[in-house]
């Protein structure tokens, strides 16, 4: 079944300047374009046929190729960069069909968080293991330096139905709300407005007794 889905012998294409638009067939038979550097077109075509496949983690389409000899699929962005399909790659403009090299970056899970500053607050971008943005944690701007320089990146983590900002360290998981309130991880912190990604001090309160959170 999987093999038949990817039996695409030839892709049509269009070249405009230094950009090539590869025509991809979706499951319903409609066509969408994948954008690549024109200089990569021939080797992409020589690799075989490419099709559009919906990927739930990216929440969008990826250009995929089936390798019969290896009985596995390969993503266009990993082929372009010459790495394993399991290697996490970010599309910088968040368009997963834009596979020009200038838009691709191998995601370093240990890299510092991106952030955006406002007058009194800042937003910390939280990503998953694929480098996909999943949410943003709000903090007081005066806490930004300390939060960014804790030694480990903050990532998106769900406990039940609630999202949290956490940092995974060799000594265990650090919760941003507890880090903000003094870095004692044996406390319980409530979010007054019930938004667990709002970690401004005015939205946090420490309760007297630790209530275990099931993870």
Walk me through the structure.
This protein is mainly β and 215 residues long. The chain has 5 helices and 16 strands. It folds into 2 domains: 2-106, no CATH class; 115-206, no CATH class. The strands form 6 sheets. A 3-stranded antiparallel sheet has the order 1-2-3, with no helix packed on it. Strands 4-5-6 form a 3-stranded antiparallel sheet. A 3-stranded antiparallel sheet has the order 9-10-11, with no helix packed on it.
What are the main properties of this structure?
single chain; 215 residues; mainly beta; 2 domains; disordered N terminus
Mean pLDDT: 90
Give me the side-by-side strand order of the main sheet: 1-2-3
The geometry reads as: elongated
| Main beta-sheet annotation | 3 strands, antiparallel
- Regions with little confidence, pLDDT below 50 for 5+ residues: 1-6, 210-214
- What string, H for helix and E for strand, traces the elements in order? HEEEHEEEHEEEEEHEEEHEE
What fraction strand? 35-45%
Structure classification:
mainly beta
* Helix-residue proportion: 10-25%
Radius of gyration: 22 Å
> How far apart, in Å, are the first and last alpha carbons?
37 Å
Summarize the structure.
This protein has helices spanning 2-5, 41-47, 76-81, 144-148, 176-180, and strands at 13-16, 19-25, 31-37, 51-55, 60-67, 72-75, 89-91, 104-106, 115-117, 121-127, 133-140, 155-159, 162-169, 172-175, 189-191, 204-206. It is mostly beta strands and 215 residues long.
């Amino acid at each position: 079944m999987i093999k038949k889905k990817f039996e695409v012998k030839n892709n049509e294409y269009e070249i405009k300047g230094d950009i090539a638009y590869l025509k991809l067939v979706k499951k319903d038979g409609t066509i969408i374009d994948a954008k690549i550097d024109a200089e990569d077109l021939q080797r992409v075509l020589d690799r075989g046929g490419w099709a559009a496949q919906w990927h739930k983690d990216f929440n969008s389409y990826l250009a995929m190729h089936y390798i019969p000899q290896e009985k596995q699929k390969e993503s266009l962005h990993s082929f372009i960069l010459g790495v394993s399909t399991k290697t996490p790659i970010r599309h910088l403009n968040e368009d997963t069909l834009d596979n020009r090299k200038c838009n691709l970056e191998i995601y370093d899970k240990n890299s510092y968080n991106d952030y955006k500053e406002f007058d009194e607050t800042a937003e910390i971008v939280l990503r998953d293991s694929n480098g996909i943005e999943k949410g943003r944690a709000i903090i007081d701007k005066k806490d930004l330096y300390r939060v960014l320089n804790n030694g480990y990146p903050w990532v998106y983590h769900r406990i039940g139905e609630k999202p949290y900002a956490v940092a995974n360290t060799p000594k265990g998981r650090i919760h941003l709300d507890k880090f903000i309130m003094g870095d004692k991880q044996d406390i319980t912190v409530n979010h007054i407005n019930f938004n667990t990604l709002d970690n401004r001090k005015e939205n946090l309160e420490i309760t007297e007794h630790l209530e275990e959170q099931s993870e």
